[in-house]
From TrEMBL:
Cross-referenced InterPro entries: P-loop_NTPase, TerL_ATPase, Terminase_largesu-like
Record-given protein name: Terminase large subunit
Alphabetical list of PANTHER family matching this protein: PROTEIN YMFN, PTHR41287
Residue intervals of the Terminase large subunit-like ATPase domain: 20-115
Length: 142
């Protein structure tokens, strides 16, 4: 996460540094392991007020899980009630990749007309494929 940059507002282009309460969230999610070595939590619900950096934090976490977690063929999904909401954090993640030279070399951005199927693919030297996708409630209803 240290190599990422903020993508919008007055923080745009500045290093993405976690503030204390964000760091505590990350520690709670990723720092507690079960005796078998797996994380204690595999689902997390975080609620934050407007203008507190939800999209930037969500994008950074999604990129960490997609590119920095070491899981082969990892799939990370960002879900929301509608297409516009689903694309907000994804678009931030795309911009974070574009602003980070190291990630830009490793990640291929595949954009499509159908936003719910837009994804990032990381193809590292070992040829495993990791995917970050957006999904909406309307994607799963007829």
């Amino acid at each position: 996460m240290q190599s990422l940059c903020h993508t919008k507002g007055t923080w745009a282009g500045k290093p993405f540094e976690l503030i204390d309460w964000q760091e505590q969230i990350i520690r709670d999610i990723f720092g507690i392991l079960k005796p078998n070595g797996y994380r204690q939590f595999n689902t997390t619900y975080i609620e934050m007020p407007k203008e507190q950096g939800k999209s930037e934090l969500a994008a950074a976490i999604a990129l960490l899980l997609t590119c920095g977690d070491g899981e082969e063929r990892a799939e990370v999904y960002g879900c929301a009630a509608d297409r516009n909401q689903a694309t907000i954090a994804f678009d931030v993640a795309v911009d974070m990749v574009r602003f980070c030279p190291a990630l830009s070399k490793r990640v291929k951005i595949l954009e499509s007309q159908k936003r719910s199927s837009t994804c990032l693919h990381e193809v590292p030297a070992r040829c495993s494929l990791r995917t970050l996708r957006t999904s909406t409630a309307s994607t799963h209803t007829a």
